[in-house]
Amino acid sequence: MKAIHSSWRALTALLLTVILVLSLAACGNSNTASTTQAAQTENKTETTEAAEDSQTHLIGYSLNSMDSTMKTMADYFESVAREHGWEPVLLNANGDVATELNNMESLMNMGCEAVVIMGCDTAGSAAAIEELGAAGIPVIIAGRKIEAKEDSYYTYVAGDHHEAGKAQAGYLNGLLEKDPALELNVAFIYGQSGSSSVQQRYEGFESDCLNGQYADRVHLIASQYAEFDTQKAYDITTDMLTSYENINCFVTQSDEQAAGIINAIKAKGGSLDDYIVVSIDCSTTGQSYLKSGELDASVLMAMRQLAVSSADYVEAALNGETVEKTNQVVGYYQLVTPETYVEVMKAAGMEPVA
Fold this sequence. Notes:
- There is one protein chain.
- By secondary structure, the protein is an alpha/beta fold.
- It has twelve helices and twelve strands.
- It has helices at 2-28, 30-54, 68-83, 97-110, 126-134, 162-178, 196-210, 230-243, 255-267, 284-292, 303-318, 341-347; strands at residues 58-63, 87-92, 114-117, 139-142, 155-158, 184-190, 218-225, 249-252, 276-278, 298-301, 326-328, 333-336.
- A six-stranded parallel sheet has the order 2-1-3-4-5-11, with helices on both faces.
- The longest helix has 27 residues, at 2-28.
- The chain is elongated and about 65 Å long.
């Protein structure tokens, strides 16, 4: 026991000695310590200021789906944002307005300074935009018109969707002009119901083809919405081919749907030489069918140009500039065929699929 007490006393004495030495050292070097602390504070301030100066803007992108067309669009959004030195955050709504609203709220909570949205629904997507607008976050509506209150979004940028339908009509009118004996029995497969761009594309086709110069030789046999879905387009085409044996032309509003149409024709044992198939997008899916010759024509969306224009308006919003509420991307839609799609895409600054 005495040995233990002696050990404790020795340890205690040692600790007191160490504390005393440290205290004296601290007192003796108080000026040095103060100088070091000041230098550290100054360095920390300089580092913080430098970080703030180099801080990138967080920009949100809300996409309506992630099919091959929207995947390409997402890639352009992301690459153009990074060219501006921004940090892009891309979220996919999968065609659901409830998911879209949640995504927009997530982008807001992340601290995004501006948001670009390609909406799911003309009316249904308005709530998401108005919520961000109420929070003071500028929203750029891209590609598809959304019926939100004007004061809730910064601007709307897109092409004239009537031009897509007119381009399809122009291709078919060219065939009708070349062959006076040709009559077209058309099955029209729409994209997404509730979308203003879908309706405008149809109106362009209707005015220039169904009611155009060769209207007496163009007959609309059937029409239906496929919601930009390949499987739905496949099923609809299968039913149409069974119900209307005289159909010889399919006009559709996306390459994803064109894929469903082409595969349904092949599954029924039909020859694609007996059908004309005209689409919109010139996506990676569309390019593969243009290359094989199974898709007669598509209409290129200049997606990179839409991404560039959207970024221009994001930058204007960040700079506090005032812009028009509606802005158009000139030449957004261009007809392409198996012979021309590579050249047209390159001219639009887009890289065709090898």
